[in-house]
Design a protein that fits this description.
The complex is a heterodimer of chains A (342) and B (277). Chain A has 2 domains: 203 residues, no CATH class; 129 residues, no CATH class. Chain A is α/β, with parallel strands linked by helices. In chain B, helix 5 runs parallel beside helix 6. Chain B has 277 residues and is an alpha/beta fold. The chains are: A alpha/beta (342), B alpha/beta (277).
Chain lengths: 342, 277
């Protein structure tokens, strides 16, 4: 399918047409005045302002919490323990206005979650309309991590701002079908295509110089990075608050717990954080990562060494949320540079 | 197949193993005959025991796959789930999710080798599974030596079987306790000391060692003295686990997941990893 051009009113009509099939969710100002993911009314446009929503999109693929199993939990019940998957389905969702870094996080998380039935189901159930970045933030660095401000990894449809209008390109088959509903779109003219090419070519230059830490760090010896002297100093300021892990689109660790109410039980999983000492505490009291320096090191080593060694790319998309919201200004870009210097 | 879904099972028997009552062996029978017939595992693997409303706990499988019809788990009472399990009775429903992890390479690297099993305390469970398996396939292995120690005679696991094994002539068994105890006529001394006296030959041999980290640490020098190398020594690691599938992130030791890449590693592999277990 060709590239289509939609003005804002046409974009609005298109989202209205898609509302029959999807719940539409996009960046909007919340009650605290922050840009975050909110359900949009039919025809409401996502907030297209530059910059990232407060939270990542991982909650749509890895909900907080996810019910894994349901079971009967009546006391004295001698029926067999036969938990089953939750019966309730969820309406398909469309995320409109997803930035390339966030969409790429879904592709990265799919590597460890390759055979996770819940993640796969959510992935099937969520469509994404991307929005290319025409300017970077002071904290973002997608080009260091293998991403691009105009990248379409993980998207179904990619939207590029061209003046007051948008150029829309289908990325997947589902995206093609979705674009059939863009009734007021016109096909891109030669000059639109030229403008689109110019945007794609110029966008990456607004970000820090591209580098490829993943390939360099994969070659470095594990224990030389692990034993680097900077970890101690870095960890001293860390509060172990876990903010970075909750905001991070590629932090995917979880805990599993049972909860019961009135004879019904469910087994849920929810976000956990390797910043917390309980994360690794044995029942015996022994804790293999009892010291803060070990926890801080584990988070960065997982993203920048362990994950690349196993899967190839960094487990980081360069969104910079951790940099933006760390209360003590720990900066993963500096950690990356420190590791590259070893 | 959803890997988070446990098999329904029932507690078929409970054996109190130790004098302090803190270790019990639970004999579980899977409820559905299809599951019972399909169940198979490798000695050294573990499973998640699942108690409704309490949660799951990873426990090494103490029975050999050659023991058909039931699965054994010897459980130390330590945390929330194991405490709930210790309060359960014969006939109570439970779930089993697994088998998980890699297990000892009984059908590859260990085949044709002389085997030395060294265990301390309640870490003997998956080694019992391994020993039973090897005795069922006796011709596949050379000389088998067992060195097993506990604090007191009453803290030894599987006492009836220990006695039977000591009487076999195709098995070299050394049972020891830490200090002299009334009525005990067997060996006295820590496992590393006994290992130093037994001096197992490293010739065409593999050692499987499970026990507290301190025991493993002090068992290595006497073995190294008679020529053992790290790639001949198999260890089974433990860490806190949740998913058992290499996803949730709890049990990683550097780049490896104990649940998925382990729990069995050679000591040569472990030496290259951060000490985060």
């Amino acid at each position: 399918m060709k590239v289509l051009i939609l003005d804002k009113a046409g974009f609005q009509d298109w989202l209205r047409a898609l509302a029959g099939e999807f719940d539409i969710i996009g960046p909007a100002e919340n009650t605290k005045g922050l840009l975050d993911w909110n359900k949009l009314e039919p025809g409401e446009l996502p907030d297209f302002r530059p910059g990232l929503p407060k939270s990542s999109i991982k909650t749509f693929f890895f909900p907080q919490p996810e019910t894994l199993l349901e079971f009967s939990a009546r006391p004295g019940d001698d029926q067999a323990f036969r938990p089953h998957e939750p019966s309730e389905g969820r309406r398909a969702r469309l995320l409109a206005g997803v930035r390339p870094c966030d969409a790429r996080s879904v592709a990265l998380n799919s590597m460890p979650y390759a055979s996770d039935p819940y993640f796969l189901k959510n992935r099937e159930n969520v469509a994404m309309v991307g929005l290319a970045c025409t300017q970077g933030c002071s904290t973002c660095f997608c080009t260091w991590t293998g991403g691009s401000p105009v990248g379409s990894d993980g998207m179904d449809v990619m939207a590029y701002p061209l003046g007051d209008a948008f150029a829309l390109e289908p990325v997947t088959g589902r995206g093609k079908d979705m674009l059939l509903k863009a009734s007021s779109a016109r096909e891109a003219a030669q000059e639109d295509l030229a403008a689109l090419d110019a945007l794609k070519a110029s966008a990456p230059s607004s970000l820090p110089d591209a580098m490829d830490p993943a390939s360099v760090l994969r070659e470095k010896e594990l224990m030389s990075l692990y034993n680097a002297s900077f970890w101690q100093g870095l960890s001293e300021s860390c509060l172990n608050c876990g903010t970075c892990t909750f905001l991070c689109p590629t932090c995917y660790c979880f805990d599993i717990q049972d909860e019961t109410l009135k004879g019904k039980g469910r087994r849920i999983r929810y976000w956990d954080s390797c910043m917390f000492p309980l994360f690794t505490l044995h029942a015996s009291g022994h804790n293999p990562r009892g010291e803060k320096v070990k926890r801080v090191r584990n988070r960065f080593m997982h993203k920048l060494k362990y994950f690349p060694d196993r899967f190839g790319p960094l487990s980081c998309v360069g969104c910079g949320r951790c940099v933006r919201d760390c209360p003590v200004n720990i900066d993963i870009r500096q950690v990356m540079k420190d590791l590259l210097a070893i | 197949m959803n890997p988070y879904l446990p098999y329904p099972a029932r507690i078929d028997d409970i054996i109190v193993e130790t004098e302090d009552g803190n270790l019990k062996t639970f004999r579980l029978v899977l409820e559905d005959s299809n599951d019972r017939e399909a169940w198979t595992h490798v000695p050294g693997q573990f499973a998640m025991l699942s108690i409704a409303g309490k949660g799951e706990i990873p426990i090494g499988i103490a029975s050999s796959p050659t023991e058909k019809g039931h699965i054994l788990f010897t459980v130390n009472r330590a945390g929330v789930v194991t405490t709930a399990l210790h309060k359960m009775n014969v006939g109570d429903p439970i779930g089993v999710r697994g088998p998980l992890g890699n297990g000892f390479p009984v059908n590859s690297e260990l085949k044709g080798k002389n085997i030395v099993i060294i265990a301390g305390g309640f870490a003997f469970t998956t080694l019992r599974a391994t020993l039973i398996y090897m005795l069922e396939h006796r011709d596949d292995y050379g000389r088998i030596t067992v060195i097993y120690g506990a604090r007191t005679p009453g803290m030894l696991l599987y006492k009836d079987e220990l006695t039977a094994w000591q009487q076999r002539d195709d098995l070299d068994v050394h049972i020891t306790i830490d200090r002299e105890a009334p009525g005990w006529t067997g060996l006295v001394g820590f496992v590393p000391t006994i290992a130093g006296q037994v001096k197992p030959s490293p010739e065409n041999a593999a050692a499987l060692i499970c026990g507290p980290p301190i025991m493993i640490k002090f068992t290595m020098p006497p073995l190294e003295e008679v020529g053992w190398t790290d790639d001949q020594v198999y260890l089974s690691l433990e860490n806190r686990m949740k998913c058992g599938l290499g996803v949730c992130g709890h049990c990683n030791v550097g780049p490896v997941y104990v649940c998925k890449d382990g729990p069995v590693f050679t000591r040569a592999q472990v030496q290259k990893l951060p000490v985060e277990f």
